Amino acid sequence: MESYQSPRQSHRLLMGSTRPCCRSGLQSNQTQPTNLLEDVGYGAWPSKLSYRMYAGALVNVFGAIVFGAPLGLEYAARTLHWSLLMSSLTVVPAATVFGASWQDWQRVFAHMKLLGGIDYALCLPAYGALIGTWFGAWPMPLDWERPWQEWPICVTYGTIGGYFLGLTTSGIAGVLSSRWVRRKED
User: Fold this and answer.
1) What is the pLDDT along the chain (186 residues), one digit of tens a residue?
2) What is the pTM for the complete model shown?
3) Residue 5 to residues 11, 22, 149, Cα–Cα distance (Å)
4) Residue 115 and residue 99: Cα distance in Å, rounded?
5) Largest CA distance in the chain
6) Whether 64 contacts 79, CB under 8 Å
């Protein structure tokens, strides 16, 4: 059995200060950024982002258990890691753009009223990840007893495949919608 990294360790890798500064032109009297996102200029923002990511992960854990994810201590870490992956692909990009604006979340995800390329880039990959997860779960109940059928291996592959399919579709839809808007303006 493989050893899994705890979510706390994963979070430290993303938000921790274990690497040197990447900013060029940093003076010796300036302090180095304390995390990866401060390094690119976001300041105190990561704490809000990490709370939103964990809130999205809790929703994903609940949804996975409701839809039949195995329960037990041996599967808890796998379920939590999968939910953090889902949260980072679905919740974090939208939380980065929309923040706490409930109207924008509803407009894009509930009502599907996409206004531009950013809305397509947020909505279609998120729905792609959800649909990919659904399709990835289909081989799990089959009695083939293959190692790739264990929770959450095939679901994770479906999630990533659906996300990339949604990302590709969003790029095409964003280009086509911008052309349609330009033709409408002419």
Assistant:
1) 444 444 444 444 344 433 343 344 444 444 444 444 444 444 445 567 788 889 999 999 999 999 988 888 999 999 999 999 999 999 999 998 998 888 999 999 999 888 888 999 999 999 999 999 999 999 888 878 888 888 999 999 999 999 999 999 999 998 888 777 666 665
2) 0.70
3) 10, 26, 21
4) 17
5) 63
6) yes
Tokens 């060029």, residue located? 24
Asked if 96 and 114 touch (Cβ cutoff 8 Å), the reply is no
- Look up tokens 């195995």; give the residue: 70
Q: Which residue has the tokens 């919740």?
A: 91
Number of neighbouring beta carbons within 10 Å of residue 126: 22
Contacts of 72 (CB under 8 A, 6+ apart): none
